[in-house]
Write a structure and sequence with these properties.
Blueprint (H helix, E strand, L loop, with lengths): L1 H36 L18 E2 L5 E2 L7 E6 L5 H5 L1 H12 L2 E6 L19 E2 L1 E2 L1 H4 L9 E6 L4 E6 L4 H12 L3
Parallel strand pairs: 3-4, 4-5
Antiparallel strand pairs: 1-2, 1-6, 3-7, 7-8
Helix pairs in contact: 3-5
Amino acid sequence: MIWRVVERNVAFLLAGMIILDLALFVRVSSAERRLRSLDTVVRPSAGTEGIPPPIGFSRDGTRIDLSGGRKGWAVRYAGEGCKFCLKDAQWAVLAQELKDMGIEPIVLLPNPQDEFLKRHLVPEGIPQEAFVDVEWIKHFSLSITPTLLIFDNHQRLIWQRQGMLDSADTSSAVKAVSAIR
């Protein structure tokens, strides 16, 4: 009699474990498919070599110089016409932290006519690059605004994010910049 109870409980336990195992397998498989479907900003042909600074010009033809960044630079691919770029409150927080840490931020415009109005430009007064060197742009597949790329002073991409930032992104980016030697 006791053996029947034990056998029945073991059978229920095994059945429960098989169902749980199957549910976990389905969950991991779907997450893996979603992860593979995400676009990365860096083109596969870019390799791991240092990427040159995004030398370019503003809409009015002024040359943009990124030599001011002690630790590197941050490129925000964004434009006035993007409602998500205008609503991205975490960018204001992160941009100031990046400047304080020695990272020089710039805005790379999708089109010259997407230049931010002065009152919408965050942080105030940062350069807006309308035309960029083809040697720089060929390394990336920039199609989503906003996109943020952070480089160290050795011209290596150390952090990237497509879409609006959240507080976890801000923490992650600050941690990546703090790790720069």
